[in-house]
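ok new one. same drill as before - structure tokens go in, u give me an amino acid for every spot. 335 of them this time. try not to just spam alanines like last time pls lmao
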């Protein structure tokens, strides 16, 4: 991890698309300015968001682009009076509009990183930011209080893994919708009810458990048409938080439900260039780390992946099909 080197390895996406056109390249070492840290990247966690954007692209990306939003690394250079200092191990969620973290070194603003406490391994910590922060923001948007009924669709995903636990801490009653093979794990996390999302009788099951009024709150993780379907199961003036956008809402349904709609966007902190929101990422990172260390928060199982074009390509394909049984973490080897 010498800062005297002038070149580094980076895994570049040459264009978006289903073929995931990845190639390993050599690039110049980045140089930090004031209030920035030079970090030797050690682990990068890949999320469904990474896979979806690698397939569909993003309006603010130039190609070749580097993927990877969640990273853990060690600070190797920090300016005078800038904290954390060199030697600190930090966790962060990167700027969505800039090059990502599948590379050996990165420059990051010091105000948006969270320092890892002793006792938490970096390969575990790195899976926290994107999913964990989204869960925390969703709980904030929903204004959950004790006794609220909360439904979570696509509950087999990483965001739901954290949202279930934080919702139970608020005293909510949690209804998780997922394939049957996930039900046992979801109940262990605290879900009060697990529904088979592939069952034709799921609407009847909902009415049987909560009655005709609908849920107080819904966390929609999939977006699109699923948001409209979730809205039909919301009570009048209920709260719904959406992670992946939604299309046109029929006027009749909008007036019938009069919903309080919240949109969750981790990347918005960077896209809006909002310093307070970026600092909030740091605070949420600290909370997630503290909750894991104290045992209040269970983390998903992880799988270490080689830092190579083929291994990352296979992982992105796995994420798109939701067939990853464990959270994929890329280990960045420094020679």
């Amino acid at each position: 991890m010498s800062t005297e080197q002038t070149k580094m390895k980076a895994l570049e996406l040459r264009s978006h698309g289903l073929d995931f056109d990845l190639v390993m390249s050599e690039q110049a070492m980045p140089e930090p300015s004031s209030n920035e840290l030079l970090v030797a990247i050690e682990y990068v966690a890949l999320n469904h968001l990474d896979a979806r954007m690698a397939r569909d692209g993003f309006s603010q990306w130039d190609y070749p682009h580097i993927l990877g939003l969640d990273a853990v690394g060690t600070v190797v250079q920090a300016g005078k009076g800038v904290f954390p200092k060199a030697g600190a191990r930090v966790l962060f969620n990167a700027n969505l509009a800039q090059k990502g973290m599948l590379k050996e070194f990165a420059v990051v603003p010091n105000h948006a990183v969270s320092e890892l406490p002793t006792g938490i391994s970096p390969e575990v910590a790195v899976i926290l930011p994107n999913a964990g922060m989204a869960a925390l923001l969703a709980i904030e948007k929903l204004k959950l209080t004790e006794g609220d009924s909360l439904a979570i669709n696509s509950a087999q995903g990483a965001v739901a893994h954290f949202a279930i636990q934080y919702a139970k801490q608020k005293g909510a009653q949690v209804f998780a919708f997922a394939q049957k093979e996930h039900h046992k794990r979801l109940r262990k996390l605290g879900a009060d009810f697990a529904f088979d999302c592939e069952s034709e009788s799921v609407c009847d099951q909902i009415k049987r458990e909560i009655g005709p009024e609908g849920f107080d709150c819904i966390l929609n993780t999939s977006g699109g048409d699923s948001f409209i379907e979730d809205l039909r199961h919301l009570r009048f003036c209920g709260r719904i938080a959406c992670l992946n956008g939604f299309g046109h809402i029929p006027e009749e349904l909008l007036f019938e439900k009069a919903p309080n709609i919240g949109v969750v966007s981790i990347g918005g902190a960077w896209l809006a260039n909002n310093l307070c929101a970026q600092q909030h990422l740091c605070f949420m990172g600290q909370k997630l780390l503290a909750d894991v260390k104290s045992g209040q928060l269970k983390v998903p199982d992880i799988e270490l992946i080689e830092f190579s074009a083929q291994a990352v390509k296979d992982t992105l394909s796995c994420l798109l099909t939701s067939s990853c049984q464990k959270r994929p973490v890329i280990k960045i080897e420094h020679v």
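The mean pLDDT is 93. and btw Residues 40 and 156 are 32 Å apart (CA to CA).
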